[in-house]
Amino acid sequence: MKKTILASTLGLAALGAHAQSSVTLYGIVDTGIGYQSSATSLGKTSGGHSLVKMAQGIWAGSRFGFKGSEDLGGGTRAIFQLEEGYNSATGAESTSGLMFSRAAFVGLANQQYGTLTAGRQYAPYYTLLSAYSPTNWLTGAYGAHPGDLDSMDTIYRINNALVYTSPNFSGFTFSGMYAFGGVAGSTNAGSSWSVAANYIHGPVGIAVGFERLNNATSGGGTWSSSSTAYSGGEPGVSGITNGFQTAQAQQRLAVTGGYAFNSQWDISASYSNVQYIAGAGSKFFDTQIWNTGGVVLHYKPFTVLDLAAGYSYTRATKANGITSAASYQQFNLSQYYSLSKRTGLYFVEAYQRAGGQTLGTNGAGDIINATADIGDGQNSAPASSRSQFAGAIGIIHRF
């Protein structure tokens, strides 16, 4: 249960007669057991074995956080959020060395003028597209598009970011972000920017977003350690992008939308164009492009039961000496049973089939067969073969 504390109960009324503050403690604990076929370590294409393990954060990443606001008068509020991810199976930080890895920002909000926040947060590309993301019902661990290539799950968080989000104008909302790179002598290196807009009216909605992430090293570097988005070693490299992790920049353009037929059935769809752009120091030479299309059908036959099925198709362009471009087809199912408003049981299943060729860890010249990498939960242990199956059962509790 969310715990809210009013400032007056803490003896802080002296801060101002008009000011009322509140702080909310919230969180999620999510733990299960997962199975994965043909698992190996990133960069290897042989020697895979099946894997059964305790898995956590499958349906929704385990976390705890604080968020609060203070009424400043005139319709303006000061707001903040601090959110930490953790491993519910071991108690470890989800991202080593980051105290509040999921969010750490402060800002001002006004119903008439919008919201401005500063700190570590999600890009508008994600927040405005997420209403129709495949991860809503298929989970990110198993249902994100291969490797979460198009950043529709929550693994991409941006440091040093300023984000403005408009009020809702009759269903229309827009947002923009700029994140400072902090590299001496260069305003571009390590910086990121994003713009997005969505329109939701009754049962129908559509969203469009763009983001560009520039590497902090001018000639290309490893995204897992040297870019604004991945500072602190957050995951960004997968079996899909492993050969292109020295990109000078990444950029994404995506469209999502959905329609609710009634209280039981709804459908959502998405399309994305992802580009990894080579620099002088990159280990590949042509811009690498992936196009992904996906659809999710959600059915709620009873108040306590949610069922979903999804399909996505990802195809790379012919580049960097590859004549048989990589492709990935992914099929997903999920079942969620509510034990209460705050606790649920879930089952998820996924299968992916890869085809074509891609680049290995050494980049250009290291051409290998593309291998499967379901969602983003298998990024550190993708398949050693063309096909992979993964499934999990778990319990989630929200407080």
From TrEMBL:
Chain ranges of the Porin domain: 9-354
Annotated signal peptide: 1-19
UniProt KW Signal keyword: yes
Keywords (A to Z) from UniProt: Cell outer membrane, Ion transport, Membrane, Porin, Signal, Transmembrane, Transmembrane beta strand, Transport
Record localization: Cell outer membrane
Membrane topology: Multi-pass membrane protein
Pfam families: Porin_4 (PF13609)
GO annotations of cellular component type: cell outer membrane; pore complex
MF terms in GO: porin activity
Chief localisation class: membrane
Cited InterPro entries: Gram-neg_bact_OMP, Gram_neg_porin_domain, Porin_dom_sf, Porin_Gram-ve, Porin_Neis
Protein name: Porin
Lineage: Bacteria, Pseudomonadati, Pseudomonadota, Betaproteobacteria, Burkholderiales
